[in-house]
Amino acid sequence: MILLIFVVWMLFFDENSYLSHVEYDDEIKKLERLKAYYQEEIAKDRKIIQSFENEENLERFARETYMMKRQNEDIFIIEYDTISD
After folding, report:
1. CA diameter of the chain
2. Do residues 57 and 51 touch, judged by C-beta distance below 8 A?
3. DSSP sequence for 16-75
4. HSE-up of 63 (CA within 13 Å, CB side)?
5. What does the DSSP 8-state code read for residue 14?
6. Tens digit of pLDDT per residue, the chain (85 long)?
7. Alpha-carbon distances of 26 from 18, 22, 35, 69, rounded to whole Å
8. Using the 8-state DSSP alphabet, how is residue 15 labeled?
9. How far is CA 37 from CA 43, 51, 52, 66, in A?
10. What is the rounded distance in angstroms from the CA atom of residue 36 to the CA atom of residue 34?
11. How far, in Å, CA of 5 to CA of 73, rounded?
């Protein structure tokens, strides 16, 4: 009887119970997936940064992303009306 109570206590109620270990394993798997995702993102960002070593690529990125321009240069942005009558 005491052995049965001990086993039930250790499996379900103890701080280091089997259920806690299952939850910890799930959390570890989730964190490992996040780690792999962020490592892929870091690799992509490194490729982008390496492409900026070329001055033309850096200028193209600045123009497309931040709408930057050279001195004495005019940029016209044309927006089309999307509402049809």
Report:
1. 90
2. yes
3. T-HHHHHHHHHHHHHHHHHHHHHHHHHHHHHHHHHHTTSHHHHHHHHHHHH----TT---
4. 14
5. S
6. 888 888 777 777 777 778 888 889 999 999 999 999 999 999 999 998 898 888 888 888 888 888 777 788 877 777 777 776 5
7. 13, 6, 14, 50
8. T
9. 10, 22, 23, 27
10. 5
11. 82
User: What is the DSSP-derived secondary structure letter of residue 79?
Assistant: -
* Lookup: tokens for 13: 């109620």
Contacts of 61 (CB under 8 A, 6+ apart): 48, 52
pLDDT at 85: 58
60 vs 65: CA distance, rounded Å: 8
Q: Say if CB 11 and CB 17 are below 8 A apart.
A: yes
